[in-house]
Design a protein that fits this description.
Elements: E1 7-14, H1 21-33, E2 34-44, H2 56-64, H3 69-72, E3 75-81, H4 86-100, E4 107-111, E5 128-131, H5 142-151, H6 155-161, H7 168-177, H8 183-198, E6 209-218, E7 221-227, E8 236-237, E9 240-242, H9 249-261, H10 267-272, E10 274-280, E11 291-299, E12 314-321, H11 322-325, H12 336-344
Parallel strand pairs: 1-2, 1-4, 2-3, 4-5, 6-11
Antiparallel strand pairs: 6-7, 6-9, 7-8, 7-12, 10-11
Helix pairs in contact: 5-8
Amino acid sequence: MKAAFQHDVAILIGRFQPFHNGHAGLLQAALAAGAQVVVVLGSAFHARSPKNPFTWQERAAMIAATLPEAQRERVHYVPVRDYYDDGLWADAVRAAVAGAVPRAQRHALVACFKDATSYYLHHFPQWQLLNQQIDDAAPIGATAIRNVLFEAEQIDVSLSAVAQLLPLAVSQYLKAWTLLPWYGPLVQEHRAIEAYKARWRAAPYAPIFCTVDALVQTGGHVLLVRRGGYPGKGLWALPGGFLEPRERLLQGAIRELAEETQLGVLAPTLAEALVGVAVFDHPDRSQRGRTITHAHHFDLKTSQLPEVAAADDAALAQWLPLAALAGMEEQFFEDHFHILNHFLKLTQEQR
């Protein structure tokens, strides 16, 4: 006899980096509420980083490993990227859920409002909200677990220290995952980010950083750099950096462009080629702290590609075809793919 469910589908939204016992409790609440369950895996298609170490496929496998077969068959996993735009993100979540369970009419959103970062759960008033409580005394948090994972001197000892926070299958998964080649570089990146934050802890208030980026296109190509150091070592990025104390924004963007790429174009020519400027200010766009960037879009409108050479903190400067960018999303630093997408419309999800 089939169980009667109050809802056709229950939705659980999270990053699950990694999936822990608190998440497992919410998933069981979703399985009890809906005939089908859709797990929305946020922060999908990111390059690996200490904040997003696991791909969406790895997270789906991690979650599935904790479930018995009967429950596993009722769960659907849908990846959703970070759009750094709440409305666009909410539209993408609704579309993903509809695609996974197209005939569902009665929707429930299983939620736990843990802190201010949970505001996104208010974006779905058309779904019945099932607010769940997690014991405040329980030391559960994915950030703390990641810190243990990347600060461990002896991984077996450290994983045993957080074992009570994780389903057994996830503990085993993490132990095997730390043997893979990307674990070591993520440890180094975590250390670099923590060292960066430590230098600013003595400030009387949380600092807000101002940066500039330069998107230069011409001849069907875009000029990008590979980052030479942490954070984001080896990832593609727009040429850019921190604004100097006496600089105007455009001056800073042109200076950083010259320093990192040695682009053979005069500053007045670049200023005339400026076709757009946009501010990217999402609080979570950078792991180093609150960083607001002003991205400058230059279109040289030439058929020839000017010579470039990497310098400063760039390991490589290279012209890449516009047509290749959409397939490179997981190779970009922080939100630089989304900056490119804003100006160049690389994906179809636009507002």
